[in-house]
Every structure is written in structure tokens, then in C-alpha cells.
């Protein structure tokens, strides 16, 4: 099992989308919310993903496809 911390940056077009809920339902790993700053026009959330490396990489690709910007954080 590996862990990866990332910052997810959400554009205003995703303001009403339950992206974290979809992420947790679609992939089988642990999501730990570290901190967040959410506003009506844009927001970000720092999370730590723990699980199998291939699934974490797949989830990051899926998030990018949804329009979420990803910044890798140091663990």
C-alpha cells in the first residue's frame, strides 16, 4: 500500500458536483481530507490517498478528466 497527498483545485464549473463522493465510490482506497478552502467561484482540497499505486494513478487521471487540477504534495 502507498500513500499520495494531492491538492485538488476545482473550477467554478464543478462547484455543484460531488467529485469527492464519486471518487470514493469509483475507487477502493482510503481518502483522508487534510484541509480545504471552498468558495463559490473556486476551491481546493488537500487529500491523502492510500491504497494500491495503480488505482491511485488511475484515480488521478479520472480527476483530471473531470476538470480538476491536481498538484502533487510531498508526503
Protein architecture, described:
With about 80 residues, the protein is of the alpha+beta class. The protein has one domain: ACT domain (Alpha-Beta Plaits, 2-Layer Sandwich). The protein contains 2 helices and 4 strands. The protein has helices at about 20-25, 55-65, and strands at about 1-10, 30-40, 45-50, 70-75. A hairpin with a 4-residue loop joins strand 2 (about 30-40) and strand 3. About 10% of the residues are buried.
Radius of gyration: 12 Å
Give the averaged pLDDT, no decimals.
93
The CATH architecture: 2-Layer Sandwich
Return residue spans where pLDDT drops below 50 for at least 5 consecutive residues. Answer: none
Q: What is the percentage of strand-forming residues?
A: 35-45%
Through-space gap between termini: 14 Å
Return the structural class. alpha+beta
Shape: globular
The CATH C-level class name: Alpha Beta
CATH topology: Alpha-Beta Plaits
SS field, number of helical segments? 2
Number of DSSP-assigned strands: 4
CATH homologous superfamily classification: ACT domain
State the major sheet. 4 strands, antiparallel
Oligomer: single chain
Strand order of the largest sheet: 2-3-1-4
Assign a percent range to the helix content.
Answer: 25-40%
Name the helix and strand elements from N-terminus to C-terminus, one letter apiece.
EHEEHE
Amino acid at each position: 500500500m502507498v500513500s499520495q497527498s494531492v491538492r485538488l483545485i476545482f473550477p467554478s464549473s464543478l462547484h455543484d458536483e460531488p467529485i469527492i463522493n464519486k471518487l470514493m465510490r469509483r475507487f477502493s482506497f482510503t481518502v483522508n481530507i487534510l484541509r480545504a478552502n471552498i468558495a463559490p467561484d473556486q476551491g481546493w482540497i488537500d487529500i491523502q490517498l492510500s491504497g494500491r499505486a495503480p488505482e491511485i494513478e488511475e484515480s488521478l487521471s479520472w480527476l483530471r478528466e473531470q476538470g480538476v487540477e491536481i498538484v502533487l504534495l510531498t508526503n
